What does this fold into?
Amino acid sequence: MKACIKPENGKVEMLDIPIPEPGPGEVVVKMTMCTVCGSDMHFLDEFANAMLNFAFPGILRPEGLPLGHEAVGTVHALGEGVTKFAEGDRVIASCMIGCGSCHECVSVDHSQCSGGGHVLFGCQAEYYTIPFANHNMAKVPDSVSDEHAILACDIMSTGFGAIERGEAGLGSSVAIFAQGPVGLMATAGARALGCGLIIGIDTMDDRLEISKKFGANVTINAKEEDAVAKIMALTGGGVDLAVEAVGTQVTFEAATRAARRGGVVSSIGVYGLTPQLSMPTLAPSFLHRKIVTTLCPSGSDRMEYMMQLLEYGDLNLESLFTHKMKLDDMGKAYDLFRDKTEGVLKIAITP
It folds into this structure.
């Protein structure tokens, strides 16, 4: 089968490797669509393979790191003990794999698993393997498109999670710093969950236009005006929830300045190798602020919840997909995503 492999930092290769066989509790899925995520760029360009193998033992192949953690497909083969799925089922899986039985999986979230869980790797291939399948996969309803289903694996769950864990709800004011794919999902999540004033901030006008489609009432180009000052003027003192959705010191600090007294800062950006963050202590909200970070809420229950939202929630997120490519073009897909040219947001990649 064809698979996208990272032999070294910054380089991808399409290689022919054997179709995997499922072990106990595993499912092998035949991919119908995969995509590139911002996290993939960190794995490709920043984190050495040896570092990733130390963090997630056993993920490397002799050829390198199998890339990709967002995909949708059909069940190809079942391992011993898999009881919730059958061959031919159309499925997705969480980008974060949990064992389903450790303390963290049971009481916190599958994304925090301490019982053998890890980032799902290897989805940018004709076939890929899902460990602990009973706890991490969900069936995709016939009425939900591949483009919608694949978003639930990571960025939709993450973006909606920023709003949920930020305790925003009916009528809450929300500012989302960065309107890339995950920031746009936070914008859509804020609208779907009944928030009031939603403000989208970015430096790219094309992304701000999509932000309006996804639910933003007001958009701010941070290159052209002071985003925090405008938020303060619009709200009379800051938003209930400020979301950081790209993973930089600049946007994190801006989010801390934009929250009202007693407000919440919700960070979902991936900071990569950034060793630490800082925030201003003289901002009015500093002394009574809550800061929450979120790693993609995961597990079968979460995936099923996302499927329910997509099936019945009147969400239309397919415009996030700006490009279509074939699996053989993974190198071009990564270059496009890295360079952020041609208005790229998400790329629908098919076999």
User: Anything to note?
Assistant: The CA atoms of residues 161 and 297 lie 7 Å apart. The radius of gyration is 20 Å.
